[in-house]
Design brief:
It comes from Streptomyces millisiae. With 436 residues, the protein is of the alpha/beta class. Helices cover 44% and strands 15% of the residues. It is built from 17 helices and 11 strands.
Length: 436
């Protein structure tokens, strides 16, 4: 029998239903519904990877190596495949005999497998030190962010903002939406001329420069990425803001020159880890003056029935954000409160992140050859897959993103916030406009 029908039968045995895609194998054979998205298994090596690393990591290695691919648009294939996995009834799993038979069939399809294929070079190779130690966190950040500023310019566009934008309407350009987000943060923090802002995980400096240029703040931006810090410093000089903004290669645990009037942490807390989150919250609390505000912008996952069963996604851990962890927003709020903060506002931006990611994917796909030249074919494939899959996860509500505004309570109890009105809301659209 040709390879594709055998692969389709194997998938059905493992998932309990026929594959919702057309499978095209290395021998030219096809199996599956005509007109469905096409998944190409280009080489038996893809199956060998699954033999040695069953599950998502084996599939990820095959994808990064180019042995597994999708014909045409990526979203339709990801949508039907992920939908099948997400909607699978609880408790439905192949029996032991079925798994054994599947393993034998996979071995027969994969061919001779004396040793496992080496993982693609884009995979994290070695991590040293305890989880979320200073040394290990620096290694993790370097793996993700020190892949070339030119590559990030291509993906992110001129704003160089690597976090969820805020859209007035779904038709806003990415630049407009990112400018909305930067200004929204500054207004939530109520920044004023001469105030000190600490930007934790400052990236390429966009928020820090906006706060200094538009609000007259004096800003310290910290990052663990040397490439980001150098890029941000160059931007500050070009804009004539080097006397107002300082960029450091520094961990939040090493920052000790408070008090600050405000702290922003945008897309950074996902790297902190559950075990360190109380320490993170306490450190930021100690760096704020009384009455100072914290804006914590963080991706969240849905809570689980058994939180102890949470595991970091193997593909994300190996190729994208090593050691990154997501927590339910309720846990984040609780830990901020335990550190002494008064949480005053929480805004979900879930749909906004889906729109942001789709624009990043479009940027990458439109300049694909240049992206490959700037990094590697495997690296470009990693970014395309993780951003497209993340967009679908936000759209389906499997993950979200939230801005939490918190205050270090002063002795008087006066928070300095408006009584009711969210006067920091951006103009130019309504929630109804965005949903449309």
């Amino acid at each position: 029998m040709s390879a594709a029908p055998r692969i389709a039968a194997l998938v059905e045995r493992l998932l309990g239903a026929p594959p919702p895609v057309l499978i095209r194998a290395w021998d030219g054979s096809e199996a599956g519904p005509q007109g469905a998205p096409v998944v190409m298994v280009r080489h038996p090596r893809a199956l060998r990877r699954m033999l040695f690393r069953p599950g998502e990591l084996g599939l990820a290695r095959a994808w990064v190596a180019g042995e597994l691919d999708v014909e045409g648009e990526l979203y339709p294939a990801l949508d039907v495949i992920s939908g099948m996995v997400w909607n699978r009834p609880e408790g439905v799993a192949p029996a032991g005999r079925s798994l054994l038979a599947a393993g034998r069939e996979l071995l027969a399809l994969a061919g001779p497998v004396p040793v496992p294929p080496p993982p693609p070079r884009e995979e994290v190779r070695r991590r040293t030190g305890p989880l979320h130690s200073l040394r290990r966190d620096r290694q993790a950040i370097s793996h993700h962010y020190d892949v070339g500023n030119d590559f990030y310019e291509l993906v992110l566009g001129p704003s160089m903002v690597y976090s969820c934008a805020v859209f007035g309407t779904a038709g806003d350009t990415l630049e407009t939406a990112q400018a909305n987000k930067l200004d929204l943060i500054c207004r939530k923090l109520d920044l004023r001329e001469g105030q000190r802002l600490l930007d934790v995980g400052c990236g390429w400096g966009s928020l820090a420069l906006h706060a200094a240029r538009e609000y007259g703040a004096r800003v310290v931006g910290i990052t663990l990425s040397t490439e980001q810090a150098e890029y941000a410093r160059t931007r500050a000089v070009k804009e004539g803001l080097e006397d107002r903004v300082e960029f450091r290669v520094q961990d939040y645990r090493e920052t000790d020159d408070g008090p600050f009037d405000a702290i922003s942490s945008v897309g950074m807390a996902e790297h902190v880890g559950t075990a360190r989150y109380r320490e993170y919250a306490g450190q930021l609390f100690g760096l704020l003056r009384e009455g100072g505000r914290l804006l914590n912008h963080q991706i969240a996952r849905r809570p689980m029935k058994d939180e102890s069963s949470y595991r970091i996604d193997p593909f994300i851990d190996a190729y994208v954000f090593p050691d990154g962890e997501l927590a339910p927003v309720g846990r984040t709020v609780t830990l901020l409160e335990r550190a002494g903060f008064e949480v005053r506002d929480l805004e979900s931006l879930r749909e906004h992140y889906a729109l942001t990611l789709r624009q990043w994917v479009r940027n990458l796909e439109e300049r694909w050859e240049e992206a490959v030249r700037l990094t590697s074919p495997g690296r470009a494939r990693v970014w395309r897959l993780y951003m497209a899959a993340s967009a679908l996860s936000f759209e389906r509500g499997h993950i979200g993103v939230n801005q939490v505004l918190a205050v270090r309570p002063p002795a008087t109890g006066a928070s300095g916030l408006p009584l009711r009105t969210r006067d920091w809301r951006p103009a130019g659209g309504t929630e109804k406009d965005l949903a449309a």
